[in-house]
Amino acid sequence: MINLHTFMEKLIKKTPAQPEFHQAVNEVLESVGPVVEEKPEYRKAMILERMVEPERVIMFRVPWLYDRNEICVNTGYRIEMSSATECDEFDPMIALEKLIEAPTRLSCLLKGLDEEFLAKQPGEDRWSIRQFMTHIRDAGGVFNGRVKQFTIEENPVLTSQAVWEWARSDEAGPGGTLAILEDFRVSRAETVDELKRFPLKDWWREGQHDEFGTVTLKQQASYFAAHELTHISQIGFLVSS
């Protein structure tokens, strides 16, 4: 049987400077890991190992002008994990709608559940509902900070955060999971207020992500909206089971 924790440890050791890649892989493992564990033919075919290796890597030059009027040249990389899939972006208003809905949908899912159930892990190396909530709150906080950067900075530098690692701690703090939800709700309200102030054209404003290169506000909003939809679905599955 494959050990998902060991799999992640090996991946992190192999790619130590890519925390958001680690986060993305960890989220996929939450969904497909149990299926691979149950199917010997998938393990034999090395499905997980093939999923985390790029299909192709494009290397290109990035010339730019330093603030002392000096020309610098860096090396850029475009990583394509699979040519069979592409990352879709939401229309700005659809992305905003999904970001607004997330706290309410989570509140409905958690209604009437006690903390013992919320803290229970469904299996080894698998997250509890409380850990999912911690992760959603923390990722939402990162997005909130990035939206503020887009508000006050021209071409802001967006720093990668190992958000998925933060959820490994099982310390819910005072108020437990509902307090985590409330933190997320307050943070999301701030984010939505900021986003509503942006003219539509400013959703295409660019920033520099230290792992993914040039990204727009629209891409970031789409990414975090889709990210939350994935985890809301996973929480819904845990609640129903």
How would you describe what is shown here?
The protein has 241 residues and is an alpha+beta fold. The protein folds into 2 domains: 4-51, no CATH class; 92-240, Four Helix Bundle (Hemerythrin (Met), subunit A) (Up-down Bundle). The protein contains 10 helices and 5 strands, in the order ααααββαααβααββα. It has helices at 4-14, 19-38, 40-44, 47-51, 92-110, 115-119, 129-152, 163-166, 176-197, 217-240; strands spanning 56-65, 71-80, 157-158, 206-209, 213-216. The strands form 2 sheets. The chain has a 3-stranded mixed β-sheet. Strands 1-2 form a two-stranded antiparallel ribbon. Helix 7 (129-152) runs parallel beside helix 9. The chain is globular.
List keywords for this structure.
single chain, 241 residues, alpha+beta, Four Helix Bundle (Hemerythrin (Met), subunit A), 2 domains, 3-stranded mixed β-sheet, two-stranded antiparallel ribbon, 5 strands
CATH class of the largest domain: Mainly Alpha
Major beta sheet, strand line-up = 3-4-5
CATH architecture of the largest domain: Up-down Bundle
What is the CATH topology descriptor of the largest domain?
Four Helix Bundle (Hemerythrin (Met), subunit A)
Low-confidence spans: pLDDT under 50, at least 5 residues? none
Overall geometric form: globular
Q: Total strand count, please?
A: 5
DSSP strand content: 5-15%
* Through-space gap between termini: 23 Å
Radius of gyration: 19 Å
- Please give the share of residues in helix: 55-70%
What do we call the CATH homologous superfamily of the largest domain? dinb family like domain
How many DSSP helices? 10
How many structural domains are formed by the residues? 2
- Main pleated-sheet profile: 3 strands, mixed
Helix and strand composition category? alpha+beta
Mean pLDDT over all positions: 86
Instruction: List SSEs in N-to-C order.
Output: HHHHEEHHHEHHEEH
